[in-house]
Known about the structure:
The structure holds 2 protein chains of 2 kinds.
Chain A lengths: L1 H29 L7 H8 L7 H35 L11 H15 L5 H27 L3 H24 L5 H7 L9 H9 L2 H8 L1 H9 L1 H6 L5 H22 L5 H11 L5 H30 L5 H20 L19 H20 L18 H32 L6 H4 L1 H16 L8 H21 L4 H24 L5 H8 L8 H20 L1 H9 L1 H6 L4 H22 L6 H11 L5 H25 L8 H22 L1
Helix pairs in contact in A: 1-14, 2-3, 3-8, 3-12, 3-13, 3-14, 4-5, 4-6, 5-6, 5-12, 5-29, 6-29, 7-21, 8-12, 9-12, 10-14, 13-14, 14-15, 15-21, 16-28, 17-23, 17-24, 17-26, 17-27, 17-28, 19-20, 19-21, 19-26, 20-26, 21-22, 23-26, 27-28, 28-29
Chain B lengths: L2 H19 L3 E5 L2 E5 L6 E3 L2 H9 L6 E2 L2 H8 L9 E2 L8 H6 L4 E5 L6 H4 L5 E4 L8 H15 L3 H26 L6 E6 L4 E5 L4 H8 L15 E5 L11 E5 L12 H5 L1 H4 L3 E4 L10 H13 L5
Parallel strand pairs in B: 3-4, 3-6, 4-5, 6-7, 8-11, 11-12
Antiparallel strand pairs in B: 1-2, 8-9, 9-10
Amino acid sequence: MHAAASLLATAWPRYVLGLGVMLALVLGHLQLDGDLGLAEQWRLITGSQPSGFDQVRFYYTALPRALLAIMVGAVLGTVGSLLQQVTRNPLVSPLTVGASSGAWLALVGASVWLPALATDERALVAMVGAMLSVGLVLAIAGRNGIGGLPVILAGMATHLLMGAAASAIILLNQEAAQGVFIWGAGNLTQNDWNWVQWLWPRLLVLPLMLALAPRPLTLMRLGEAGARGRGFSYGPVLVMLLIGALWILASSITAVGIIGFLGLIAPNIARSMGARRAGDELAYSALLGAVLLLATDSLAQAAGDWFGELVPSGTAAAMVGAPALVIFAHRKLSHGDQTALALPQGARRTTWLTWTVAGSLLLGLVALTLTYTPGAMEPLSGFPFAWPSELIWSLRAPRLLTASAAGVGMAVAGLILQRLIRNPLASPDILGMSAGATLALVVFTVWTGTSIYHAGPGVAFLGSLVVLVVLLIVGRRSHYAPGIVILVGISLAALMEALVHFVLAQGTQSAHIILGWLSGSTYRASADRALMLAAGVAGLVMLVVVFNRWLTLISIGDPMARARGVNVARARLVLLLVVCALCALVTALMGPVAFVGLLAPHVAALLGARRVLPQLVLAAMVGMGLMTLSDWLGRTLLYPDQLPAGLMAALIGGSYFIFLLTRRRLG
Amino acid sequence: MDPKLKQCLTLVLGVCLTVTAHAEVSVTDSRGEQRFESVPERVVALNWSMAENLVELGIEPVGVADVAGYRKWVAQPELPESVVNVGKRSEPNMERIADLEPDVIVLSTDQAGLADKMSQVAPVLFFDAFRKDHSNAEKAREIFLEMGRLFEREDRAQHQLDMLEARFIWLRGRIRDHFGDELPEVTSVGFASPTVVRVFGRNAMPWYALRQLGLESAMPQPASQWGQTQREVADLNQLNQEDVLLYFKPTVLAGDLLEKPLWNALPVVEAGRVAPVDTSWVYGGAMSLRYLAENMTDALLTIEP
């Protein structure tokens, strides 16, 4: 009680300010459509029966929408703050621990296979999806990883994996999945009170959480030993709190769809405004969440009126949130998290056996890809292997070459990043360089209305370059602390997803084309483009081979490199530019490829390739093998339907990565 | 007759027939003039509206992309039982297409990038049917005629287009009989979610069909590639009580919107000037205009004049 009183004494101006802003925003929000006078609005709020369309519109759309914005915003803020306090990690949010992608995957699946689900069942499906996904992330990160980088990386990996699975379902069921697109983009539009009435009883947990959470959270800050000293074990309480948080989060997601960023930003702003104590931060984050969602939703509505076309709130939130997050990170989080994560150690060194086996496996895969005819799997068609005819060769060879070159390119890019940043979990997809290229291509397409296949590598390179510049500016001060670098990646990935959802939500026949491209397909590879990609990758890899001494020295440490006469700053820049060029090349000529850059160097190390050059060669072989296998599986598994190689790689690589991370924890 | 002579005559006759059958045809697709040495017989269509055109011309395609999807979402006209599925529209399976040994592969909107690849397998026709900078419906007629030319069924194609025109006139007459000289302005929509509608505006096939029925748009939208704009349901208040609002079935995506106060308070709904239209594929070819016009007329005739 004393704490609450003293809190009230110091914090009340902040709360008055927050509530005042919220009230102003609600008032503004209510004026966005319809032209009822304030007096008339007040009569409707106080119970007068609506009559005439303007009154009905105010009563059934404007009012519930504003209320829902407040409710959902408060949920996002609270859950974000709770997660950040529990993990003691300012980068955690519903988005980064995989809750939204789990819900998204579950609902996409449900809308295709169980289209007749009622609202409550849908909420349950979303909730189970969110819980499984968050559970997975927490399990991977483990007790020690929860406070730092591992949980973010695990979240990102899970996010990519779930996203890939959802895309696969959509690609195979284009028309049936239409129903979830608008929901996926996060849309607050209402046409009655149903969602408000559905949601509010579920949010009764929220005040309870606000009341119960501060004590265990405060004790947790003292550390486990300190808490036990006071005769209190906070473990079970925290688990209950987390389940409660996921419950209200899943309910909100079911009601309005995916709205990212707010849960991440609100607690950070709350802390920077002085809300330091556990309860204060929770409550103030809730208030700020409501304020932020009201503001972004007003923006979405205004933009929709301006364009004469629906702009989902989730899109607006991402447009505002992503840059805000990067700027915020730049100012607040210097020298943040330097946690590195050790993955399982494998063989000590490579033997001739390693190379022979790897080489023959690779050759076998190439032969399989070229000679196997999937149609022959159907009854009575005979032996499925045949030397390809000229035609079949001309169909398969460019795909093989594209997949191989992309695999090599991403593997090498990943290896450079892991050595430069000295973190085994760095990779172009997680640091946002691929996302930058992708985002540039998607924006280009949406903006110019041309096909995404016509945007060239130049646009993609520009995108990667912008990301690199942002990384250099943001990262320089923190010496490229992985936390910040990864934050840029997360922001970009989420921004890109919001844009993609926006395009999907327009529901035209073109939507699946962008989605197909986003999944990284070798399908459209022509001989010319395949050769261009292969030549480009080969050239860049040669460059890395020439500069391999830099990599060796920098991965030992900057002082060591400097002592040996390396201009570290310049070496870093050159190597990062090479990474950028590799990402741009692969992304423009094939599409985004996830996980290969992360896993290939790591598998190479597991096999015993510890020095730069052997690791480079082995990683390239692994990357090539993984992509070739993915392309082959995507082409043959569901014959005659096909799944893009990038998507298969994400599914295979993501699963393997999660397996690795779990083993790390147990071992 | 001397068996040798008979053999010889048969041969000559055969050659003559072959020569007539191998008459050269040339058609113009979105990339320019395409020549075929003979009338193609085995046709693969990788786009649903192109498959529709083939069936309307009396050609049975040997392969179509996403056959199950076509049967579910396009439905009319029916595809033959024998047609082979060649994979999804975004990435049709080239090896299976090659197995079918087609004489021509027909591509449409969003498949421009496939033309070069596909021409490794067989000659390709690419018709860019849906574009912002042309009239989709006029283009659909041209495409239909070109395809008729390809299969030497130009007369049939022209006849069907004339029939379409006649159908429009007849339907227009029915609408005039029903409404009198003062025709209402009409807008058609599809439901995208319980809160969002797709308004079919300039350059959408339903919009064009309405125009052919002599009906002006009640809620004009700027032209776009597919002619549809997404709006909140409440924005339909732009329609006034004299207008007519048509919505396409199925209404699954709308949930229970149709029973809600907001929907029923829309001026056009309150005035009872709203009607459902039977399921019709709104991204189809020239002949789909007929189904659209017929289904929309049926809906319009349920509205009190």
